[in-house]
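Re: [help] complex structure
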Amino acid sequence: MRLLILIGLLLAAAPAQAFIARDMRGHAVTLPAAPQRIVSLVPSVTEIIFALGGEERLVGVTDFCDWPPAARRKPSVGGMVAPSLEAIVALRPDIVVATDEGNSEATFDELERLGIPVYVVHAHALDDVVALIARLGELAGRGAAVPPLVERLRARVRRVVAAVRPYPRPRVLYVLWPEPVIVPGRDGLVTELIELAGGTSVSATSPGAYPRLGLEAVVASRPEVIILARHGGGDTPTLRATWTRLATVPAIQAGRVDAVAGELLHRYGPRVVDGLELLARIIHPEAQVAAPSRAAGGARR
Amino acid sequence: MTEPARRLGAVLALLAAVTILAGAGALFVGSAPISARGVVGALVGRGGDVERLVVLDLRLPRIAAALLAGGALAVAGVGFQALTRNPLADPAILGVAGGAAFGVVVAQLGGVGTTVLAALGLTVFAFAGALVAAGIVYLIAASDGRLPLETLLLAGVIVGLFFSAAITVLISVVEFDRLAGVIHWMLGNLRAISPGALGLFGALQAFGVWLILGRARQLNLLALGEEAAQQLGVEAERLKLRVFVGASLLTATVVAFAGPIGFVGLIVPHAVRLVLGPDNRLLVPGALLAGATFLLVADTLARDVIAPAELSVGVITAFCGAPFFVYLLRSRSGSGSLSP
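Output below.
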């Protein structure tokens, strides 16, 4: 009995002290206490922390963290591939959140050498986005904000899926990058979003997350809808001009070439659901899919 | 003391002073807002955690890496130029840097970290790539046991092009999200490396410099032509092999630790030669110090002009190097000959 009480006391005392977590690589991250100062090297992570209302603990972001607009007012540590280590150190972070799909591994090793814990994230599916939101909620001390946010996003996904269900599924080509042609593959989040939006991605079986595709393969896949990703202030007419040459492709004949803001679909923050709604409206203009809220930023451009 | 020796001493002392000044100055530059007092405090062991971390663990090792890499590239350039008796030779032109870069890209795609062991592994890959490239160049260029210089240079250019094509093949199959990292590396970048890796870097550089500096007098004789050098008692083939290995090792180490940084191996030896003359006994240590200073200044600019984001130092060396080279060529034309 005394032993049980002792164990109970130990269990009660320990969690209040150390903060122990496992990042998405499976690496253990141990902090003396829950992190109060977080640096984000990932735009998606920045968006999620803001969406959860945890921005007070976010002390540094990258030059690419442009959403929400308030993120631009956070101190920047530079780019994603080569952030300034001394700018990071000067912010005295308890933890740095980074991704192994866009940051460089050398940065992780250097931060660990400097004694700054690194928490690595990535996402290939909508479930990963939900898992990431939950993890960041825990990290930023905003666990209570996770269920309402996730439930709102899930409800919107359900509405999209229900709205497109009655209609046939057209073959969709999503072009992440025009030259070389980069498309979402088997492990790409965009592939899943196209399926949920009532389409069939012509590159759904290509290996990897973002494989390259030859123009011949594009023509052979006979896409019925082509969706081009805009990057930043990318110009849609120029983007389209490259594709209208391929006159025998069904999507070109039917005039179904459209563009979306890439940042909504390639980042894995809450705005992927905005991206999903835009995809559904493009793939199924006949279905009654609600437009994403005006606050989504990328949708307005 | 003889007159040349006194001149050597004076010039080297001046260059060393400039190098030390540049190194000290670079400690005060960076994107973290740290006052001059804070920097000095960190150096003498006082000051806050942030100051100590930034100054001692980030700025100091990066400055050391820049000095080592710059010196190594410049000495490698001197070696290759003496070897080919051509002031246009440099590690890139002879295909050696391309081979080393190919080795490193192969190792990186296999996923190598940045521990000391990994750094050693990377260097081994780079050196292997450099030697394979140098070997192929030698096999193409050698005829009847001799190494005609025109063929050597041409072979170097071809082998360099081949390896850059091979790197392009590797890059085009790499995952899209790792592309930025590989391209970033290809531009040439210095990092604050761990003390262990820095020690390894320094030891390899010292060995490479010794291989070349130890034969500076014979290299002077080689400049008179191989036959003349043979008649003066120089074993030309052994000398060339030793210098080739030394320069390749220097190139490979820099490529492994910092990526292929261009222009330093070409400009610095040439500039130093225009100022100090072609004597390799003076040129090797002169280029070592001048190269170190040049790359340090370039890297300090790289980490500060668009702070907190960083430029690639390779971009700066090309950007500043080319006009400087033209200026030197114009203002001191005629005295750039290789013969003492």
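DSSP finds twelve helices and ten strands in chain A.
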